TrEMBL record:
It comes from Aureobasidium pullulans. It comes from the Eukaryota. It catalyses: Cleaves type-1 transmembrane domains using a catalytic dyad composed of serine and histidine that are contributed by different transmembrane domains. Belongs to the peptidase S54 family. This is rhomboid protease.
Protein backbone atom coordinates (compact mmCIF):
# COMPACT_ATOMS: atom_id res chain seq x y z
CA UNK A 1 0.00 0.00 0.00
CA UNK A 2 1.61 3.32 -1.02
CA UNK A 3 2.52 5.64 1.81
CA UNK A 4 0.87 9.03 2.05
CA UNK A 5 3.40 11.85 1.80
CA UNK A 6 2.42 15.14 3.37
CA UNK A 7 3.89 18.45 2.21
CA UNK A 8 6.77 19.50 4.43
CA UNK A 9 7.22 22.94 5.92
CA UNK A 10 10.12 24.75 4.24
CA UNK A 11 11.33 27.66 6.34
CA UNK A 12 13.54 28.89 3.50
CA UNK A 13 10.60 29.32 1.15
CA UNK A 14 8.62 31.15 3.82
CA UNK A 15 11.57 33.42 4.55
CA UNK A 16 12.08 34.07 0.84
CA UNK A 17 8.39 34.94 0.44
CA UNK A 18 8.47 37.34 3.39
CA UNK A 19 11.61 39.03 2.07
CA UNK A 20 9.87 39.62 -1.27
CA UNK A 21 6.83 41.32 0.23
CA UNK A 22 6.44 44.86 -1.13
CA UNK A 23 6.79 47.90 1.08
CA UNK A 24 3.19 48.91 1.80
CA UNK A 25 2.15 45.33 2.53
CA UNK A 26 4.95 45.07 5.09
CA UNK A 27 4.00 48.40 6.66
CA UNK A 28 0.32 47.54 7.05
CA UNK A 29 1.12 44.14 8.56
CA UNK A 30 3.50 45.77 11.05
CA UNK A 31 0.82 48.30 12.03
CA UNK A 32 -1.72 45.49 12.53
CA UNK A 33 0.68 43.71 14.89
CA UNK A 34 1.43 47.02 16.65
CA UNK A 35 -2.30 47.62 17.17
CA UNK A 36 -2.65 44.14 18.70
CA UNK A 37 0.24 44.79 21.09
CA UNK A 38 -1.23 48.18 22.01
CA UNK A 39 -4.60 46.57 22.74
CA UNK A 40 -2.86 44.22 25.19
CA UNK A 41 -0.99 46.99 26.97
CA UNK A 42 -3.63 49.73 26.99
CA UNK A 43 -7.06 48.90 28.38
CA UNK A 44 -8.75 51.78 26.55
CA UNK A 45 -7.23 51.12 23.12
CA UNK A 46 -9.86 48.74 21.70
CA UNK A 47 -12.70 51.02 22.73
CA UNK A 48 -10.84 53.93 21.12
CA UNK A 49 -10.04 52.24 17.79
CA UNK A 50 -13.07 49.99 17.13
CA UNK A 51 -15.88 51.05 14.81
CA UNK A 52 -18.84 51.70 17.11
CA UNK A 53 -21.79 53.21 15.19
CA UNK A 54 -23.32 55.02 18.17
CA UNK A 55 -20.06 56.81 18.89
CA UNK A 56 -19.44 58.06 15.37
CA UNK A 57 -19.23 61.84 15.00
CA UNK A 58 -16.88 64.37 13.44
CA UNK A 59 -14.35 63.88 16.25
CA UNK A 60 -14.32 60.09 15.90
CA UNK A 61 -14.11 59.75 12.12
CA UNK A 62 -10.64 58.25 12.63
CA UNK A 63 -12.38 54.99 13.60
CA UNK A 64 -13.15 54.40 9.92
CA UNK A 65 -9.41 54.00 9.36
CA UNK A 66 -8.40 52.31 12.60
CA UNK A 67 -10.98 49.52 12.84
CA UNK A 68 -9.44 47.30 10.10
CA UNK A 69 -6.12 47.40 11.95
CA UNK A 70 -7.60 46.33 15.31
CA UNK A 71 -8.27 42.74 16.40
CA UNK A 72 -9.81 41.19 19.49
CA UNK A 73 -7.11 38.59 20.04
CA UNK A 74 -4.06 36.83 18.67
CA UNK A 75 -5.99 34.15 16.76
CA UNK A 76 -8.23 36.76 15.14
CA UNK A 77 -5.18 38.78 14.11
CA UNK A 78 -3.01 35.94 12.83
CA UNK A 79 -5.77 34.34 10.74
CA UNK A 80 -6.62 37.66 9.14
CA UNK A 81 -2.93 38.30 8.45
CA UNK A 82 -2.60 34.92 6.72
CA UNK A 83 -5.68 35.67 4.62
CA UNK A 84 -4.77 39.28 3.86
CA UNK A 85 -1.05 39.02 3.04
CA UNK A 86 -1.16 37.27 -0.37
CA UNK A 87 -4.13 39.37 -1.49
CA UNK A 88 -2.58 42.65 -0.41
CA UNK A 89 0.81 41.73 -1.85
CA UNK A 90 -0.81 40.97 -5.21
CA UNK A 91 -2.79 44.22 -5.14
CA UNK A 92 0.31 46.28 -4.41
CA UNK A 93 2.31 44.51 -7.13
CA UNK A 94 -0.37 45.40 -9.67
CA UNK A 95 -1.14 48.96 -8.55
CA UNK A 96 2.02 50.28 -6.90
CA UNK A 97 3.00 51.08 -3.32
CA UNK A 98 1.82 54.69 -3.29
CA UNK A 99 -1.73 54.00 -4.57
CA UNK A 100 -1.98 51.06 -2.16
CA UNK A 101 -0.98 53.26 0.76
CA UNK A 102 -3.45 55.98 -0.23
CA UNK A 103 -6.32 53.52 -0.68
CA UNK A 104 -5.82 51.43 2.45
CA UNK A 105 -5.30 54.43 4.71
CA UNK A 106 -8.25 56.24 3.17
CA UNK A 107 -11.16 55.10 0.96
CA UNK A 108 -10.83 51.36 1.60
CA UNK A 109 -11.57 52.04 5.26
CA UNK A 110 -13.88 55.03 4.87
CA UNK A 111 -16.25 53.52 2.30
CA UNK A 112 -16.99 50.11 3.87
CA UNK A 113 -16.83 51.52 7.39
CA UNK A 114 -19.06 54.45 6.55
CA UNK A 115 -21.56 52.22 4.75
CA UNK A 116 -21.67 49.84 7.69
CA UNK A 117 -22.20 52.68 10.16
CA UNK A 118 -25.08 54.20 8.18
CA UNK A 119 -26.87 50.88 7.63
CA UNK A 120 -26.32 49.62 11.17
CA UNK A 121 -27.35 52.89 12.82
CA UNK A 122 -30.15 54.24 10.66
CA UNK A 123 -31.68 51.12 9.07
CA UNK A 124 -31.19 48.39 11.68
CA UNK A 125 -31.08 50.82 14.64
CA UNK A 126 -28.35 48.69 16.21
CA UNK A 127 -24.92 49.40 17.64
CA UNK A 128 -22.71 46.38 16.96
CA UNK A 129 -19.02 47.26 17.18
CA UNK A 130 -16.76 45.76 14.52
CA UNK A 131 -13.04 45.48 13.99
CA UNK A 132 -10.57 43.46 11.96
CA UNK A 133 -8.78 43.29 8.62
CA UNK A 134 -11.31 40.81 7.25
CA UNK A 135 -13.11 43.78 5.69
CA UNK A 136 -10.02 44.18 3.47
CA UNK A 137 -9.87 40.44 2.83
CA UNK A 138 -13.40 40.41 1.43
CA UNK A 139 -12.82 43.67 -0.44
CA UNK A 140 -9.80 42.21 -2.21
CA UNK A 141 -11.52 38.87 -2.83
CA UNK A 142 -14.37 40.72 -4.55
CA UNK A 143 -11.93 42.66 -6.71
CA UNK A 144 -10.09 39.47 -7.67
CA UNK A 145 -13.37 37.70 -8.45
CA UNK A 146 -14.23 40.35 -11.05
CA UNK A 147 -10.90 39.77 -12.78
CA UNK A 148 -11.48 36.02 -12.66
CA UNK A 149 -15.02 36.46 -14.01
CA UNK A 150 -13.69 38.29 -17.08
CA UNK A 151 -11.43 35.33 -17.91
CA UNK A 152 -13.62 32.49 -16.65
CA UNK A 153 -17.26 33.58 -16.22
CA UNK A 154 -18.57 30.36 -14.64
CA UNK A 155 -17.51 27.29 -12.75
CA UNK A 156 -19.41 24.02 -12.79
CA UNK A 157 -20.94 22.57 -9.64
CA UNK A 158 -22.68 19.41 -10.73
CA UNK A 159 -25.25 20.37 -13.38
CA UNK A 160 -25.12 24.05 -12.39
CA UNK A 161 -22.96 26.83 -13.77
CA UNK A 162 -22.24 29.39 -11.05
CA UNK A 163 -20.82 32.83 -11.88
CA UNK A 164 -17.31 33.14 -10.49
CA UNK A 165 -17.96 36.65 -9.18
CA UNK A 166 -20.40 35.18 -6.65
CA UNK A 167 -17.72 33.13 -4.86
CA UNK A 168 -16.91 35.87 -2.28
CA UNK A 169 -20.64 36.28 -1.55
CA UNK A 170 -20.99 32.54 -0.97
CA UNK A 171 -17.87 32.56 1.18
CA UNK A 172 -19.27 35.42 3.26
CA UNK A 173 -22.47 33.45 3.82
CA UNK A 174 -20.54 30.35 4.93
CA UNK A 175 -18.37 32.42 7.29
CA UNK A 176 -21.44 34.08 8.81
CA UNK A 177 -23.11 30.70 9.41
CA UNK A 178 -20.10 28.70 10.57
CA UNK A 179 -18.02 31.26 12.48
CA UNK A 180 -19.57 32.81 15.59
CA UNK A 181 -19.65 36.57 16.12
CA UNK A 182 -18.71 37.56 12.58
CA UNK A 183 -20.30 40.55 10.89
CA UNK A 184 -22.13 39.51 7.73
CA UNK A 185 -23.09 43.12 7.08
CA UNK A 186 -19.56 44.41 7.60
CA UNK A 187 -18.10 41.87 5.20
CA UNK A 188 -20.87 42.68 2.73
CA UNK A 189 -19.89 46.36 2.80
CA UNK A 190 -16.30 45.37 2.06
CA UNK A 191 -17.49 43.17 -0.80
CA UNK A 192 -19.49 46.04 -2.29
CA UNK A 193 -16.45 48.32 -2.39
CA UNK A 194 -14.33 45.51 -3.82
CA UNK A 195 -16.81 44.88 -6.62
CA UNK A 196 -16.93 48.60 -7.44
CA UNK A 197 -13.14 48.70 -7.58
CA UNK A 198 -12.92 45.59 -9.74
CA UNK A 199 -15.49 47.01 -12.16
CA UNK A 200 -13.57 50.28 -12.36
CA UNK A 201 -16.28 52.52 -10.91
CA UNK A 202 -14.12 53.92 -8.10
CA UNK A 203 -10.76 54.16 -9.84
CA UNK A 204 -11.04 57.92 -9.41
CA UNK A 205 -10.15 57.41 -5.75
CA UNK A 206 -6.50 57.17 -6.82
CA UNK A 207 -4.81 60.38 -8.01
CA UNK A 208 -3.81 60.67 -11.65
CA UNK A 209 -0.75 58.63 -12.57
CA UNK A 210 1.07 61.75 -13.73
CA UNK A 211 0.75 63.17 -10.22
CA UNK A 212 1.92 59.91 -8.65
CA UNK A 213 4.90 59.70 -11.00
CA UNK A 214 5.82 63.29 -10.17
CA UNK A 215 5.71 62.51 -6.43
CA UNK A 216 7.79 59.36 -6.91
CA UNK A 217 10.36 61.23 -8.96
CA UNK A 218 10.46 64.29 -6.72
CA UNK A 219 11.01 62.23 -3.57
CA UNK A 220 13.07 59.55 -5.33
CA UNK A 221 10.95 56.89 -3.62
CA UNK A 222 12.17 54.13 -5.89
CA UNK A 223 15.79 54.77 -5.02
CA UNK A 224 15.33 55.48 -1.33
CA UNK A 225 12.84 52.80 -0.29
CA UNK A 226 13.68 49.10 -0.62
CA UNK A 227 10.80 46.92 -1.85
CA UNK A 228 8.98 49.96 -3.21
CA UNK A 229 6.67 49.21 -6.16
CA UNK A 230 6.61 52.00 -8.72
CA UNK A 231 3.41 53.24 -10.33
CA UNK A 232 5.11 53.15 -13.72
CA UNK A 233 5.67 49.40 -13.84
CA UNK A 234 6.52 49.41 -17.54
CA UNK A 235 9.53 51.64 -16.90
CA UNK A 236 10.77 50.47 -13.52
CA UNK A 237 9.50 46.90 -13.28
CA UNK A 238 6.93 45.41 -10.97
CA UNK A 239 9.06 45.56 -7.82
CA UNK A 240 11.09 48.66 -8.56
CA UNK A 241 14.60 48.02 -7.26
CA UNK A 242 13.91 44.33 -6.69
CA UNK A 243 14.34 41.58 -9.29
CA UNK A 244 11.17 40.97 -11.30
CA UNK A 245 11.64 37.31 -12.18
CA UNK A 246 9.38 35.90 -9.48
CA UNK A 247 6.43 33.95 -10.83
CA UNK A 248 2.97 35.19 -9.84
CA UNK A 249 1.23 33.33 -7.05
CA UNK A 250 -2.34 32.01 -7.29
CA UNK A 251 -5.16 33.98 -5.71
CA UNK A 252 -5.97 32.61 -2.25
CA UNK A 253 -9.46 31.77 -1.08
CA UNK A 254 -8.87 31.94 2.63
CA UNK A 255 -11.50 33.43 4.87
CA UNK A 256 -11.00 35.09 8.24
CA UNK A 257 -12.16 33.25 11.30
CA UNK A 258 -14.20 34.57 14.16
CA UNK A 259 -13.46 35.23 17.78
CA UNK A 260 -15.25 36.53 20.85
CA UNK A 261 -16.55 39.65 19.14
CA UNK A 262 -17.93 40.46 15.76
CA UNK A 263 -14.96 40.50 13.49
CA UNK A 264 -14.27 42.53 10.44
CA UNK A 265 -16.39 43.73 9.10
Amino acid sequence: MPSLSLPQFDARRVRSYLFRLPLCTRALLVVIVAFWIASLRLSWFQQWAALIPAEMNLQSMYRLNTFPLLHVGFVHMIVNIFALTPLLERFEAENGSLPTLLLFTGPFGLLPGGSYTLIEKFIFHANTAVQGASVWVFLLLASESIKTFKQNPNFALGPYNIPTWTIPLILNLFVAVLVPNTSFLGHLCGLAVGYLWGLGYVKFLVPNEKILRWIEGKLNLLGRLPHYVSVDQKTYGRYGVLPTTATPRPVPTLAPLGSTQRLGP
